Amino acid sequence: MATGKNPLFDTATTLGKLILFLGVSSICGVLVAGLLVPAAAVSGSAASGSIQFFDTLPAELKVEPPSQSTTILASDGSVIANLYAENRTRVSLDQMSPYIKDAVIAIEDTRFYEHGGVDTTGILRALISTARGNKQGASTITQQYVNNVINSSLEAEGKSDQVLLNGVNKGVGDKLREMKLAIALEKKFSKEQILEGYLNIVFFNRDAYGIEAASKFFFSTTAKDLTLPQAALLAGVVNSPSFYDPITNPENAKNRRDLVLGAMVGQGKITQAEYDAAVATPVETNVTPARQGCAYSPTAPYFCDYVLHLLLNDPAYGEDAAERERKIFRGGLTIKTTLDPNAQTVAREQVNGSAGDNPDKWGAALVSVQPGSGKIVAMAQNTVWLPEEGKFNQTQNFNVDSQDARGNDLNGLGGFQPGSTMKPFTFAQWLNEGKSMNTLLNGAVRRYPQNFPWRNTCQAPTIGAYDASAGTKDLQNAEEGYYKYMTVLDGLANSINTITFATAAQVDLCGIQKIVDAVGIHGGLPTAESPNPQVPMTTLGNLIGSYQTSPLTMASAFATFANDGRYCEPIAIESVTDHTGNQLPAQTVTCKDAIKPEVARGVAYAMQEVLNRGSGALIQPRISTRTTFPIAAKTGTNDTNGSTWVVGYTSGLATASWFGDPLGNQGRLGQNVTINGNFYRGVDGYMIAGPQFSNFMSAIAPSYGTNPFPAPPSSMVNAPYTPPRKTTPTAESSAPAQAPAKDTGNGSGNEPAPQPTVAPDEKKK
């Protein structure tokens, strides 16, 4: 049986309507009195108690800028990536289409320019409508702005569970507080400021906060260029972003848009002709997906992530990780980096071409810095951050240290064995002690027993031995023909292990250590006591690169030779500004004297010979087929051929190029492998890392400067003639000494082949 209506309260009757009107008027009267009348002017205990409660509510609202997107830029101002917790770009009111301002006011708050924050007429209308069964809101734009500001502050503080939503978890007290704050806000800010703030903070979509982000997301345009149909549609979305989403619910969106247009024409905001044309326009979106984070960077995801880690680990951006993350992802920062887009494009092309079809997941990496500033101009590797079919997926950066860590998420892979790219530092100590690079040494010595009298003033124990008679291997060269006398210069140019050890045997190992430390070479996992762990040069294997270090570390170290012996710490961030244009802490150029200028010049002289006639003769960079430029470099290959390098520099650019095994413990053999359709008995530095280096430097180095290197002192180059000697093999020599051979012009005497089957470069041991 149907429940009967009491005719006295039936709102369909005249009497019912009258009673409803009186009741609603009474409620509004009390509410208005509570909002506008001082407590002392109200009589009656109930009314007085309500007003006293109202007076205890806060009247000040701290309007902080809403969460805004942070942008990471390349050196030319192009965008590398956007970072945000809420995708929002703040714009001023004059950068918004007049249509969006009129549309929002028409549908959300017709009397916006007439009320003082709370619209009592609107409240009355809403109460009557709700009493009739048609629920209607009464919040003004100012009230909505207040609510959004409060919620934005809660989100920024990590208090999402306290966010208040109309009709969901907002009580009478919350509503009264909102009203009082709205009234106070109207006294503090102009209508234009409130409207601007509202349009910049309001939620349109999970990937679009504020009108600028919404314009870009839904229509790939700006707030200033919104058309009338577009503006009316976005104004309608605000009421229920999910229900009126034009992508998933285009019909709902059109109905709401047309309702907005009807309100606009009814209020004289647009003409009838404009209305007719707009409602006839189909709902069509042109979505620009919001891509948040470094993973979506189309040009430099790994460099971007390196920059992000630098900021997340910088106490200048907050006392703890959570505060720094809020600052970066909500602070609307503009981070200008050192990255050169042109250099980055070439670097990416080279590393992506090195492995090509790569089912075995061999890695390629290249990083380049400027001598004299340490600015990183390129950083690339042959992997993708976001998984793609047929691609090598990797989120760790091959080029940087593992020390840029966030919790247990290591940013960098931590490096690779540098092989013979470590040899120039022993050579540098030889020159540092006043010796000539053209001194003859006996490369036939292959045994260095445990009791060998190494000179080491650091007092650290010397670790390692090469002595087959005592159970270890004799020291190895890559080819048999180089166990002979040769100059220290020829030994470096041709990357001869036995000459490197013969060099080290006549210098202070502690001096080598000091040079390596001074040029920033480090490796291993950091600790609080040792943030840049030392590579111990008193461990003999490290003389020829058995300790892991990163490509960025090696590029920066070699840049020291190009910079006349001054080491500059690598930097990636040139400037950081907040949303108001204030400068925040960024990285600064930090350089120091590390090597004597004359020593740096001597090393440059020698490493030019690596490319002129030594182990890198097949990869000499050229501007054209016949034109070269001054450039110095060193090849490197470890024992297993699983880590191969070329590191080198011009006067204006230093680059580390690496190819090898980046997986697990990096123990795979780079031997008897097929890469890019070519079979290699042993992958060596000049084969893949070499062309990667050469092609990059040929394309980019000239724009950074390729001036001739300053000449070293003549005493470093000249040496009195030492006649060839014959020696009898001893316990320290397993091969007869030979007279110096006439240089054939190609060092190792190896010829290129389309499919290399030999290993002409050096091996670590």
TrEMBL record:
Alphabetic keyword roster: Carboxypeptidase, Cell shape, Cell wall biogenesis/degradation, Glycosyltransferase, Hydrolase, Membrane, Multifunctional enzyme, Peptidoglycan synthesis, Protease, Transferase, Transmembrane, Transmembrane helix
Listed name of the protein: Penicillin-binding protein
Chain intervals with Polar residues compositional bias: 725-736
GO biological process: cell wall organization; peptidoglycan biosynthetic process; proteolysis; regulation of cell shape
GO MF entries: penicillin binding; peptidoglycan glycosyltransferase activity; serine-type D-Ala-D-Ala carboxypeptidase activity
Penicillin-binding protein transpeptidase domain segment(s): 366-650
Span of domain Glycosyl transferase family: 77-264
Family affiliation: In the N-terminal section; belongs to the glycosyltransferase 51 family. In the C-terminal section; belongs to the transpeptidase family.
Transmembrane annotation, as ranges: 18-41
Region (Disordered): 715-765
GO cellular component: outer membrane-bounded periplasmic space
Pfam families named in the record: Transgly, Transpeptidase
Reactions mediated catalytically: [GlcNAc-(1->4)-Mur2Ac(oyl-L-Ala-gamma-D-Glu-L-Lys-D-Ala-D-Ala)](n)-di-trans,octa-cis-undecaprenyl diphosphate + beta-D-GlcNAc-(1->4)-Mur2Ac(oyl-L-Ala-gamma-D-Glu-L-Lys-D-Ala-D-Ala)-di-trans,octa-cis-undecaprenyl diphosphate = [GlcNAc-(1->4)-Mur2Ac(oyl-L-Ala-gamma-D-Glu-L-Lys-D-Ala-D-Ala)](n+1)-di-trans,octa-cis-undecaprenyl diphosphate + di-trans,octa-cis-undecaprenyl diphosphate + H(+); Preferential cleavage: (Ac)2-L-Lys-D-Ala-|-D-Ala. Also transpeptidation of peptidyl-alanyl moieties that are N-acyl substituents of D-alanine
InterPro entries from the UniProt entry: Beta-lactam/transpept-like (IPR012338), Glyco_trans_51 (IPR001264), Glycosyltr_51/Transpeptidase (IPR050396), Lysozyme-like_dom_sf (IPR023346), PBP_transglycosylase (IPR036950), PCN-bd_Tpept (IPR001460)
